[in-house]
Amino acid sequence: MGEKRLLLDIQDLRTHFRTDDGIIKAVDGITFQVNRGETLGIVGESGCGKSVTSLSIMNLIPEGTITSGQIIYHKSENEQIEITKLEPHSTAMRRIRGNELAMIFQEPMTSLNPVYTIGEQIMEAVRLHLKADRQRARQRALEMLELVGISAPGQRVNEYPHQLSGGMRQRAMIAMALSCSPNCLIADEPTTALDVTIEAQILQLMRRLQKELGMAIIIITHDLGVIGTMAERVIVMYTGKVVEQATTDDIFYNPKHPYTKGLLNSIPQIGRKERLIPIKGTVPNMTALPPGCYFAPRCPEAKDICHREEPAVYDVGNTHTVKCWLYDQGEGRLA
Questions:
Q1: Percent of the chain's residues with pLDDT above 90
Q2: The model's pTM
């Protein structure tokens, strides 16, 4: 195994939204790293901050504000760029976004422009970032459509999004994201609304392209089955915070946080005879969060202190960290 090389370093990131009801702390002090060539999974229920985390990395928060923290992109061993210091529409940010850091958005039908052909949308990124002429950009678009497994690319390159099936639109989004050979691909629910056959094909495609291009992948999903298939490390998020972070094996076979255990207990398994155990309650209103640990009102293991004070982050070994009072032994505290 070669030495891991850091690609993204996120430190104490906070992204907030102002609403009529108050401030929503969609991302509230999260810290994690992404290494070159690895796959990092981010999981949690809807509304826990997964997508806002990815949009913060891309500096695409038009209605929100990154209030503090750092997102450092290690472009090379000798060059680091602090994304949080760049203006969203600056030339420097545009050079990175879509070129070195690319994203597959959650819903391809609404992410693709309905009035431009698939080919034109792929060509736009190629012409902007690779400085290619129209003929070379079109050739690149055809190559990418073929690479992602779209049949008859010469025909599809001239078609509009509404003329493609859901699976083809998702593949077209992947082709667009990979057209400039990025160092990191952020995939936000890349298999949402796809049937299981197409889902398997999309995940297999992403793994193959990762090997061929040597890129890192951040895959965001609520589906732990997808995480088990794709990720090497996992971040579990709840109400804008990272509550557990570990290798995929540790998350599945040695979970520590009651929320992680709850997510795992709700997964259907072949041959399982016991009833699934749902997590009681719902994610709290983000403008009226409870005191202490935000998961405490739903937690079957909550203690009195959990309802009063926010827990620290504890190191439980083997790069496994957990934000939970159950692990307060006076040692191993990280923050």
A1: 66
A2: 0.90
